[in-house]
Design goal:
It contains eleven helices and ten strands. With about 300 residues, the chain is an alpha/beta fold. It has an eight-stranded mixed beta sheet. It has a two-stranded antiparallel ribbon with strand order 1-2.
């Protein structure tokens, strides 16, 4: 077997994670032909076929799966070495991708990211606030805020905090309508909700727990868009209490009606000791502590 090139290993990992040569090329800033050539060279060096190609993408062969395990350990050691050398000279630097549910990222992280920057100005935080699941094993994020504990995998998980959801409407909307005295009365009002087909996380399916079979007038995959529509008088919506209570335009409807969910801090076991990862985790813990009353 020929000696291996780290650059070829990087290309292989990108192909394994993205599932397509073109997608891996975009991730690495390389063209498709370069990715294909690197993969061919790596397979020649290994003396084994690593991927099976098809119109739907690529799949790892058995040899490819074995190499991936070693390649990810090599990647981790390279990242660790770089981070520890930087930490040794007193600098915690690098980019950290943080994936969160939209409300957590939009209403908690983004307004407070200046605190992280003041403490560690050489860390670049990449925030991905989305209503979909991410894969830490595929390195789609370095740290994730999830709504449940992963059932398996080499992931470190701990509960951050519980949060509540309740019914809200704009104050001026409520002033223009009769008092809502029960859930049956809610069905007479326009309701705002997610697009069901675009909900990727089961824990976001809490609509029927509050207003079963109620008609909707506006749907969005963005909770921020939902809150904006409700705050501007469209109708009623199920919103995050920690976010809605900060908007003076909104008023709680039927406070006894409530759903509770949990935020979980998730990170890959191989990365938990990296200084840049530890710095962002400390920032998140401080963020929860400072804003605990909002929950």
């Amino acid at each position: 077997m020929q000696s291996l090139d780290w650059d070829d290993i990087r290309v292989f990992l990108a192909v394994a994670r993205d599932g397509r040569l073109q997608a891996a090329g975009r991730t690495l800033g390389l063209d498709h032909s370069t990715v294909a050539r690197r993969m061919t060279g790596l397979e020649a060096a290994m003396g084994a076929r690593l991927i099976d190609r098809s119109p739907r993408g690529v799949l790892l062969t058995h040899a490819g799966e074995l190499l991936r395990e070693h390649a990810e350990r090599i990647e981790f050691e390279m990242i660790s070495a770089s981070a520890e050398v930087g930490d040794d000279v007193g600098t915690v630097a690098g980019s950290v991708r943080l994936a969160t549910p939209e409300a957590f990222g939009t209403y908690l992280v983004a307004p407070n990211v200046h605190r992280l920057h003041a403490r560690h100005p050489t860390i670049e935080l990449e925030l991905a606030p989305e209503s979909r699941s991410v894969s830490l094993s595929r390195r789609e994020a370095d740290i994730a805020i999830g709504l449940t504990r992963p059932p398996r995998g080499r992931v470190i998980a701990r509960r951050l905090i519980n949060y509540r959801l309740g019914l809200y409407a704009a104050a001026d909307y409520l002033d223009r309508h009769p008092t809502i005295e029960g859930l049956d009365a809610v069905k007479a009002h326009p309701l705002v909700w997610y697009i069901d087909e675009l909900i990727d996380i089961p824990e976001l399916r809490y609509f029927d727990q509050i207003v079963h079979d109620a008609p909707t007038v506006f749907r969005s995959s963005s909770i921020a868009a939902q809150q904006a529509a409700v705050a501007n008088g469209l109708g009623l919506g199920v919103l995050h209490v920690f976010a809605a209570e900060q908007d003076p335009r909104l008023r709680r409807v039927l406070p006894e009606v409530e759903v509770t969910r949990s935020y979980w801090l998730l990170m890959h076991a191989d990365q938990q000791r990296l200084p840049r990862i530890r710095a962002v985790v400390e920032f998140l813990d401080d963020l929860i502590r400072i804003n605990q009353q909002r929950f």
